[in-house]
Amino acid sequence: MAEGPAILQAIDGRDGTLIWDFVATNQLKNLVQKKYFNFYNPQLIPDITGDGLPEIIVSNGGNVLKAPYDPNRPAGRIIVIDSSSGKIIIEAETPDKKETYHSVTMSNHVQIDEIEVVFGTGGETIGGKLYVVGLKDILNGDIKKAKVLAKNEDKGFVAPAVWADLNKDGIEDIIANAVDGKVYAFDGLTKKLIWEVGIPDTEIYSSPAVGFFTKDQTLDVFVNANIGIWPLFTDCSNVMIDGESGKVKYKQNFGSFQSTSPLVLDINGDSVDEIIICENKSGADRAGKKLFFNTISVIDFAKKGRKTSLLPMLAGHNTSSTPWMGDLDKDNMLDIVFCHSNNMHHTYAFDGLQINLLKTEIPITKPLKWGAYMGSGYNGRY
Q: Hey, what's the signal peptide range on this chain (predicted)?
């Protein structure tokens, strides 16, 4: 379980007992909010210590106490941790000494010498870079060898990058959203730019979704961007990009600010994937006071991007909680778990958390590949 500030714990899945706590194990209490900050989604790497268990690689950074435009921010860190004890094996600061909010994602190789790691730096108001580096370099403490894939002087890379084979060469490519509204695709072998798409007047805080959204056999990319400049956003710009050419095939503005990541499923079995996305809306009561609502919507690209809601509007706003899709009760029908604030009067409210289970009559006919944050494998790989 990864959180902030500096909260990273291993908890027994059977009885809920604590196995280890990162701060306590490494005796780092005095360095919380000084050297160690928020943890992001961890990933597993091959066993290093020889105990037969995989180790953990995770990014850490982002001092929430800093003023928005304060450039003096502590460097982010990439940390490798012994999964059995929680002890630090090795750690390295980001090459540019910038903060990080970016969860690491890795290539699908199995050998340490072949695995590559993508991470990003910067934030809403701080410039940063998108990097790729060999896992062996991280383990050698030589993260300065990381290759810069993209950079921006004013804004960074926050949402986790995705690995998927866009050009059908058998090697997963790297797809990444930048805060400045750009979407990048890089060749997984050469690391050369395949295409770049800018979504004007937007910022992006969610990960790309990958699926077959057109009738060809090439994977495509869907992005949810926010119109405006942090923290003043209006609507969302929802964009589908042809994975091979980089051409925009769908673009519609709907919903208000959110940073949840879109999900993917072929709901109607027509071999064209649909997008399942959180949608926030606002209205007003009789006195003119603004009210906020949310729902789960589906975009059907085979029907010219027709959008339908899976349930009536619910009270409150979903700022950043990506749903989970799967089959909880093993009836081969789609279940969706999602949560949101039920405070109807504020968008950034985190009080009154409401967790929902939506049971549908949509049959699950094939394995879900993109049914959760960072995909159904929680690793950012398609």
A: none
